[in-house]
Amino acid sequence: MAGFFKRIFSKEKKEKLDEGLQKTKQGVWDKITRAVAGKSKVDDEVLDNLEEAFITSDVGVDTTIKIIDRLKERVAKDKYVNTNELNNLLCDEIIDMIGASGVGDEDGTLDDFQVKNTGVPHVILVVGVNGVGKTTTIGKLAYQYKKAGNHVILGAADTFRAASIPQLCAWGERAGVEVIKQDAGSDPASVAYDTVASAKAKGADVVIIDTSGRLHNQVGLMNELSKVRRVISRVIPEAPQETLLVLDGATGQNGFEQARRFIDAAGVDCMAVTKLDGTAKGGVVIGISDQLKIPVKYIGIGEKMDDLQVFRPKEFVRSLFLNEENK
Fold first, then answer.
1. Span between the terminal Cα atoms of the chain, in Å
2. HSE of 271 in the Cβ direction (CA atoms, 13 Å)?
3. Burial of 15 by CB count in 10 Å (0-12 exposed, 13-18 middle, 19+ buried)?
4. Taking CA 126 as the corner, what is the angle to CA 180 and CA 224, rounded to the nearest 5 degrees?
5. What whole-number distance in Å separates Cα of residue 282 and Cα of residue 208?
6. Which is nearest to 70 in space by CA: 99, 39, 47, 101?
């Protein structure tokens, strides 16, 4: 099994993050610029304008109120804060607020796509409604884990959507990893069982299992996910070690309700927010990190295989709020 390496946020990753968040950054910058127009210091009017700017950037009402309250405390403490200092101040307060929601340490000691050597495969159960980029995310995860030196196997347990199995197989071929599958309409739990059993027999490091993406309010889907989890645990008692919920960043606040339903019913312990490069609603990642108390582990910032990054709150926030000269 692959070992441990230093986690490095390279210049290339930073440039991709900046590029992927450009639409959101532009929207946030325009709104903040309007909020402080003609002002020399951060006063109550500026704070009111900032509150509106954040809410309309899909940060969310509750999280926005937290941010504004933090800014008010800082302004009261420092007595005078000019608008030129505002973006640095915003970064400091938001990073402090959501930093604990990130996965791992900013300057951590593990490579992004390494897994601990426990003697059994690390099983990731991937959930989410149709259309959020779930299968694409699985393909990118498989590529990244394999690139890091892991033996990866995928399981095509979304057997209800006709296109899902060939779609996952296509991603498996692109990533160069094996896909365990059965015919469309087969029992998803059976596919999951076969996948984990095969991975254990072959000494695989990572198993990623696709699941049905039917609507989150269907009781049958949640019962099905429970069954999948049960059969997996018969092969590896501690599996799945991760249940990853994929959300579409372009849906903004609408993603919150999806997330809450899955968190309640599917034992979600981490999330991936996709399609951030195509939306100005990237502020939703801040709200999700703050409100749901489930860590955002990955963000999707482009179409390429390596355009799935581990979410680092500090780098994300700095990319949104700081210009090149003051990063």
1. 37
2. 28
3. exposed
4. 80
5. 26
6. 47
Angle between helices 11-20 and 313-321 (to 10 degrees): 60
Q: In this predicted structure, what is the pLDDT of residue 96?
A: 87
**Single-letter residue type at 281:** K
Residue 11 is predicted with a pLDDT of: 78
The answer to whether the CB of 106 falls within 8 A of the CB of 314 is yes
**Backbone φ, ψ for residue 120 (5° rounding):** -135, 160
- Closest to 99 in 3D by CA, of 325, 313, 317, 315: 313
For strands 308-310 and 206-210, give the pairing: unpaired
- What's residue 53's pLDDT? 86
What number of other Cβ atoms are within 10 A of residue 264's Cβ? Answer: 11
The total of other beta-carbon atoms located within 10 Å of residue 306's CB is 13
**What's the rounded Cα separation, in Å, for the pair 244 and 120?**
19
What ranges in the chain are assigned the alpha helix state H?
Answer: 11-20, 22-36, 44-55, 61-78, 86-98, 134-147, 164-175, 188-202, 219-235, 254-266, 284-291, 313-321
**113: nearest Cα among 80, 83, 87, 152:** 152
Cα separation, 281 vs 140, whole angstroms: 22
CA 146 – CA 89 distance, rounded (Å) = 39
- pLDDT, block means (10 residues), the chain with 327 residues: 46 84 83 82 87 86 92 82 80 83 46 82 93 93 94 95 92 97 93 97 97 68 85 96 92 78 81 88 87 89 89 88 60
133: left (phi over 0), alpha (psi -120 to 50) or beta: left
